[in-house]
């Protein structure tokens, strides 16, 4: 099978990282995979082959005819069986290129979040509706993500749909030490965007400090709201209690060294960082948003009603004072059984074969 994976940018973001890892496993299973990035970037992704950079322009993404033409040339030259759009502008570029230049190809959209949360007006909904009417299949990262996209675009019921979660890679780990002594270490991993709710992270941490002064917060990630959060930390006199790390390509050693991972997000699809924490035997406390409840429950972590900071703090405090070792064991066993990328790649292959089989039957 020939597969073209299209990503937004050569960047260390969840969609690009997962597409790279998935592509490597698909190659291991004997398939020919190429990767195409719309925009350049300076990250080093794990894909074992060459990533072709289109050089599209984000300033003219609605009229980027030259980029659409180049996509057409790449598709006609490679002749892939499956073309997968991995978030960002990838679906937009693929559909507009196909409409303008008339190339043939099966387009699979990977739905990794909750699109309904981003539809701000009638134009956005109508335009995205146009895009999704022209896809051949949608792979959603969680049942919640699939329900959300069907609620907003019910015509997709007639499309090939599948729920395929994100997976993990086994990696070599180095030993990392965080704050020592009696200090308990709390970690949050995520880009500084509104979805990740860093203001909520600060609120929860301040409440926790009222219960236990021997705690330290570790924030991993970059993003547009980072400077705002740094300023708030200074204003509240918390600089000695909070460490900012910026982007880290492999946060697993830090997650392993922490006493608890927190994720009070506003929007999520299926966050890989929860699976990473479970794999590293670090307890997780998270809001019940998106598909989080599909992997986190009372048997393997702490699932809190969205916005309930009081209960969130209570759960973090409980985990720090008395870790539930059975809960931690259950979480790791689940990840090893269901969420490693070798298995996830087989699930994608089965979906691709199902799509191709349905297309052949339609001929």
From TrEMBL:
Chain ranges of the Glycosyl transferase family domain: 170-333
Domain Glycosyltransferase subfamily 4-like N-terminal: 14-167
InterPro entries, per the entry: Glyco_trans_1 (IPR001296), Glyco_trans_4-like_N (IPR028098)
Protein name: Glycosyltransferase
Organism of this sequence: Salinimicrobium oceani
């Amino acid at each position: 099978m020939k597969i073209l994976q299209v990503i937004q940018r050569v960047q260390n973001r969840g969609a690009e990282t997962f597409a790279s890892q998935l592509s490597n496993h698909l190659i291991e299973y004997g398939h020919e995979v190429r990767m195409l990035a719309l925009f350049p970037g300076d990250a080093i992704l794990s894909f074992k082959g060459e990533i072709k950079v289109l050089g599209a322009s984000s300033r003219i993404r609605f009229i980027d005819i030259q980029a659409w033409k180049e996509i057409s040339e790449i598709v006609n030259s490679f002749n892939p069986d499956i073309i997968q759009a991995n978030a960002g502008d990838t679906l937009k570029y693929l559909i507009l290129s196909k409409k303008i230049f008339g190339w043939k190809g099966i387009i699979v959209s990977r739905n990794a979040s909750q699109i309904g949360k981003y539809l701000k007006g009638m134009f956005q909904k109508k335009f995205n509706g146009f895009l999704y009417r022209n896809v051949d299949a949608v792979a959603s990262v969680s049942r919640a993500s699939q329900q959300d996209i069907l609620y907003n675009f019910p015509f997709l019921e007639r499309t090939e749909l599948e729920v395929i979660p994100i997976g993990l890679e086994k990696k070599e780990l180095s030993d990392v030490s965080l704050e020592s002594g009696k200090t308990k270490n709390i970690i949050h991993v995520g880009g500084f965007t509104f979805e990740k709710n860093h203001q909520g992270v600060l609120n929860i941490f301040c409440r926790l400090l009222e219960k236990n002064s021997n705690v330290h917060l570790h924030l991993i990630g970059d993003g547009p709201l980072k400077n705002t959060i740094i300023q708030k930390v200074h204003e509240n006199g918390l600089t000695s209690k909070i460490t900012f790390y910026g982007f880290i390509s492999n946060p697993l050693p830090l997650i392993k060294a922490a006493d608890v991972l927190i994720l009070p997000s506003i929007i999520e699809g299926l966050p890989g960082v929860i699976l990473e924490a479970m794999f590293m035997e670090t307890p997780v406390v998270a809001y019940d948003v998106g598909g989080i409840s599909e992997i986190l429950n009372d048997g393997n972590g702490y699932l809190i009603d969205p916005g309930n900071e009081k209960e969130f703090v209570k759960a973090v405090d409980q985990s720090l004072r008395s870790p539930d070792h059975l809960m931690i064991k259950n979480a790791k066993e689940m990840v090893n059984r269901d969420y490693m990328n070798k298995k996830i790649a087989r699930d994608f292959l089965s979906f691709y074969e199902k799509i191709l089989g349905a297309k052949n039957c339609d001929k």
